[in-house]
Amino acid sequence: MAGGSRLVAGIDSSTQATKVAVRDAATGALVGEARAPHPDGTEVDPAHWWHALQLATRGGLLDEAAALSVGAQQHGMVCLDEAGQVVRPALLWNDTRSAQAATDLPGGWPGRPAWRP
User: Is the pLDDT of residue 1 over 50?
Assistant: First the structure.
């Protein structure tokens, strides 16, 4: 690291892409950045997220980073088996297939009382 500067990196894995920014910790100056897209859709194989991270950090982008901060989309469901292996594509926050069921839930269902918040 030139002049003893310390580099820090931020990684954001959103529903659209993985973005990486590397900055000088003392000055905040941008040292490097990259982006790799994620597939469109409401169901995504989590392996795509790992692949996007590898693409965005290729060429040694993180090699000099003294610290990392990682943020990711948090409203996704990744189903794993007993061995920790992904069993199906992850369901993302933008999947609205259950919207009608959520609307109907407060009314109850046959043999059950109505539910109210």
Answer: no
Strand partners, 108: none
Selection from 69, 65, 97, 74 nearest residue 11 by Cα: 69
State how far the Cα of 16 lies from the Cα of 18, in Å rounded to an integer: 7
| Separation in Å, CA 48 to CA 15, 76, 92 | 11, 14, 13
**Cα 76 from Cα 94, distance rounded (Å):** 9
Residue written as token pair 């109907």 = 104
Residue 57 and residue 98: Cα distance in Å, rounded? 36
Total residue count of the chain as it appears in this document: 117
What pTM was computed for the model? 0.76
Alpha carbon distance 94, 77 (integer Å): 11
Residues 6+ apart with CB under 8 A from 51: 36
